[in-house]
Structure to design on (351 residues):
């Protein structure tokens, strides 16, 4: 039996997730709702399959294939694609049995065909390690290193596990006129967004990393305690902050910001240490600090995140073409619209 749950059905979505012993906070419906705003016409869904008491659930975005031409014109096709949200998600299952997974994915293919889905792109969870449960036709690829921390029982132990430079930066921040505290996200959001915009501008980030009112509204719909914000102040001015998502025993560092001067004083390190310390107090076991802006091991953002974590994990992605004929037609149409041959290796190149 299969069932389709839409992300706005928060209770039903979460009830399904409760069947699995380990889920990533990025699997939450509110986060999927937020990221459905990133792609034109995208709908956040969770496809579920049950058989003989076992379950497989797979959350994703179903989005129309929209092609852009070099003359500025767009073409919204009748085709769709499947993609994971930005972060870490992928399928969940209560059963590793190959026969069960085969049956589940066969049913999924029937559904995907009805949706005229042509391709599938997955960002697997490093916490759940669910790449082994992907559709057998999915090509699983290592993408980049990510910074993670299996949190110990107390903040002092965590501090001792950080590298000496990071510990020194935290002490430097504490000895300066900086202070850190957890703040109410809704009350501090305007100030955080202004600081975040400033930070992204300084780092020449693309528009993809600029979030609008609707995105933050969806995040604010998360249940109490699942969206957290730690802010560093110089007197009454927010000079650094770290925003995270929390669910159960897992947390994810989502957004960070700081002034250039404060970052040199260790304000970013202090914000993340305060967040990790609070997560320890709340019984969180796994803190995903995340990866860099690029896949490079020496990516500056990754180096910063790594310095505030205790170990490095491996992030994997998955790709497959569901309907080769339809996919080839997309390529040809795009080439005609752009008067050039496609050279991109990006599966969903048109986005």
């Amino acid at each position: 039996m299969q069932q389709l749950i839409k992300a706005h059905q928060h209770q039903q979505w979460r009830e399904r997730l409760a069947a699995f012993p380990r889920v990533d906070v990025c699997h939450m419906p509110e986060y999927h709702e937020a990221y459905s705003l990133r792609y034109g016409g995208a709908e956040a869904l969770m496809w579920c399959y049950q058989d003989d008491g076992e379950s497989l659930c797979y959350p994703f975005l179903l989005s129309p294939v929209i092609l852009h031409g070099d003359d500025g014109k767009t073409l919204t096709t009748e085709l769709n694609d499947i993609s994971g949200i930005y972060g870490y998600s992928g399928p969940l299952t209560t059963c590793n049995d190959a026969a069960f997974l085969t049956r589940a994915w066969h049913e999924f293919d029937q559904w995907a065909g009805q949706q005229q889905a042509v391709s599938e792109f997955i960002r697997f969870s490093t916490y759940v390690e669910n790449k082994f449960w992907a559709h057998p036709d999915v090509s699983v690829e290592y993408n980049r290193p990510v910074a993670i921390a299996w949190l110990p029982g107390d903040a002092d132990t965590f501090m001792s596990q950080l590298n000496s430079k990071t510990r020194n930066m935290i002490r430097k921040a504490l000895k300066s006129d900086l202070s850190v505290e957890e703040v109410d996200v809704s009350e501090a959001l305007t100030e955080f967004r202004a600081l975040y915009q400033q930070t992204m501008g300084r780092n020449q980030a693309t528009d993809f990393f600029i979030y609008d009112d609707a995105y933050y509204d969806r995040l604010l719909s998360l249940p109490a305690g699942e969206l957290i914000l730690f802010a560093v102040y110089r007197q009454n001015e927010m000079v650094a902050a770290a925003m995270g998502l929390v669910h159960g025993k897992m947390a994810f560092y989502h957004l960070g910001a700081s002034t250039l001067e404060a970052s040199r004083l260790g304000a970013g390190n202090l914000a993340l240490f305060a967040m990790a310390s609070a997560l320890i107090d709340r019984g969180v076991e796994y803190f995903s600090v995340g990866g860099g802006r690029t896949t490079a091991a020496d990516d500056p953002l990754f180096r910063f995140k790594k310095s505030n974590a205790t170990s490095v994990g491996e992030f994997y992605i998955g790709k497959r073409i569901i309907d080769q004929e339809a996919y080839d037609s997309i390529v040809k149409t795009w080439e005609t619209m752009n008067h050039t041959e496609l050279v991109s290796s990006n599966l969903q190149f048109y986005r």
User: Anything to note?
Assistant: The chain has two domains: 2-145+315-338, 152-284. The domain at 152-284 is CATH 3.40.630.30 (Aminopeptidase). The mean pLDDT is 96. The longest helix spans residues 185-202.
